[in-house]
Design a protein that fits this description.
It contains twelve helices and 17 strands. It is α/β, with parallel strands linked by helices and 374 residues long. The protein has a seven-stranded mixed beta sheet with strand order 2-10-9-6-5-3-4, with helices on both faces. A three-stranded antiparallel beta sheet has the order 8-7-14, with no helix packed on it. The chain has a three-stranded antiparallel beta sheet with strand order 13-15-17. It binds pyridoxal-5'-phosphate.
């Protein structure tokens, strides 16, 4: 088995044609308007409402700031119930807003927050549930809605992995009170750095638009404690161009995932989870689980060995957020209370996935992984 000549990374950013970018930059220069809801910003907002099938949307300079503004706009405080199996930004956004994260164990198949475990974590100071559609797999949005209705809780979703995901034709960003999207360079759709919130309620959008611009209502009034969460014109312009590439990128990735599934699917000890037919997929990640006993080698060993072949997979999400030094003392962070999340975090491996990856290269990656089997 030969190593790759050049490193294969877990992802590569979508890089649109530079001439198209220059043309857009000329438009921005001609308008001499660089930020604060310019033409590119307005256009991207309306395009994304259509692509994501959401009634209202607000653009941000990144997903983390967007999430913080979402939490603030809903007046969340006290405790919010959240999955520990996510990117640090999800949990940090809560902490930075003065909210205590309460970790809930995850479901073994979907790797999302386990709805059956939420109710026992609700206390008199619980104000919301923060779900993450991990690797583009939708949370049990109906189950979460039932609990939030019963206890009067707000629901926020982190859909950083679920760009253009739909359930039976319904945009993922229409569930819960607010949904956050990230447009970071490593995500399927990007604006270099960027993000958005989607809403069903027009007033919530207005409130978040205010909060992302220092709380400035007009020339005479500043009515809230707001930060600077604005997306600028250069980011928005790159987003508008990237939108043209999304469908072809998704199709290339679908083919790559199919190749992975066909070639890794029969190997004992390797498994993966795919959303069902009713879900439109974003194809942002391809993540496998490695059962050490059945495969004969742990996830960590596979990860290390792949490097010898110039393949740089990623251990998403490891370490588990509840095991970070800043969170491990929380009562809900106790490993005995999060058995599934702790196992899943030790078994998952995100494999290279991006449109420019050749099918032959995918086959070679699969052969290399197969050669590790004991
Ligand atoms: C990328 C990501 C974020 C953070 O988004 P930024 O735009 O980088 O701030 C939050 N949550 C999850 C699950 C992510 O993957």
């Amino acid at each position: 088995m030969k190593p790759f000549n050049n490193p294969i990374f877990v992802t590569r950013p979508l890089l649109p044609n530079l001439n198209d970018i220059s043309e857009k930059m000329q438009q921005i220069w001609d308008a001499a308007w660089l930020t604060n809801n310019g033409k590119q910003h307005q256009k991207l907002e309306s395009e994304l409402m259509r692509v994501l099938k959401v009634p209202y949307l607000s653009l941000f300079n990144n997903g983390t700031i967007a999430l913080m503004v979402a939490l603030q706009s809903l007046n969340l405080s006290g405790e919010v119930i959240v999955t520990p199996f996510t990117f640090p930004a999800t949990i940090h956004a809560l902490s930075l807003c003065g909210i205590k994260p309460v970790f809930c164990d995850i479901h073994n198949d979907t790797m999302n927050i386990n709805v059956a475990k939420i109710e026992e974590l609700i206390t008199s100071v619980t104000t919301g549930i923060l779900g993450v559609h991990v690797f583009g797999m939708p949370c049990d949005v109906i189950g979460i809605q039932k609990i939030s209705d019963k206890y009067g809780l707000k629901v926020v979703y982190d859909a950083a992995h679920a760009f253009c995901t739909e359930i039976d034709g319904t945009g993922i960003g229409t569930y819960g009170d607010i949904t956050m999207f990230s447009f970071h360079a490593t995500k399927l759709f990007h604006t270099v750095e960027g993000g958005a919130l989607s809403f069903n309620d027009a007033n919530l959008k207005l409130r978040c638009d205010l909060l992302k611009n220092f709380g400035i209502k007009n020339e005479d009034e500043v009515v809230a404690i707001g930060l600077n969460g604005k997306m600028n014109e250069v980011q928005a312009a790159i987003g508008l161009i990237n939108l043209n590439y999304i469908e072809s990128e998704r199709q290339k990735r679908a083919k790559i995932i199919e190749t992975y599934c066909e070639n890794l699917g029969k190997i004992k000890g390797i498994s993966f989870c795919m959303p069902g037919e009713s879900v439109k997929k974003s194809f942002q990640y391809f993540v496998i689980r490695i059962d050490k006993n059945e495969f004969g080698l742990s996830r960590d060993k596979v990860y290390e060995k792949l490097k010898n072949y110039n393949i740089f997979a990623r251990k998403y999400f490891y370490p588990l957020c509840s095991n970070y030094s800043c969170y491990k003392e929380l009562i809900s962070a106790d490993k005995r209370k999060l058995p599934v999340a702790n196992i899943v975090a030790s078994e998952t491996l995100s494999l290279p996935l991006y449109g420019a990856l050749e099918v032959d290269e995918v086959l070679q990656i699969c052969d290399i992984i197969k050669s590790f089997k004991k």
